[in-house]
Amino acid sequence: MIYIVLKDLAGNERLVPDGAPYRLNPGEFVVGSRGNNNGERQLEQETLVELAKHADSNLGSVIEIFAKPVAIVLGMDKCTSCNLRKIILNLKNKLGWKAMLDLVRRSFKEPPEIIAAEIKKVLES
To answer: For the chain, how many structural domains are there in total?
Structure first.
């Protein structure tokens, strides 16, 4: 598993799982990441690229234009769950509004791998 490493002014570190929502506490900043970056990260990126090929809308891309600057400031510009949400929104015509909104809501609570597998099933059927 990959973790984002946050450090406060006193030097205390906090680890946040990649893709999990988090807020920086006052005086806290992102210092990097830890964990298995190689195989797991590569597989996640390949899955996201595969799902993005099915995009039939640009809703997620439009939202990304406005959200990207905030993500960069918060140190979340490489957030797997955020990229997955963009893809979900871009698949709105294939998934339908109700399923799309349900997947976006669940993406804040469930790991991206589970959501991506579900989307793959829907697209394959």
So the answer is: 1
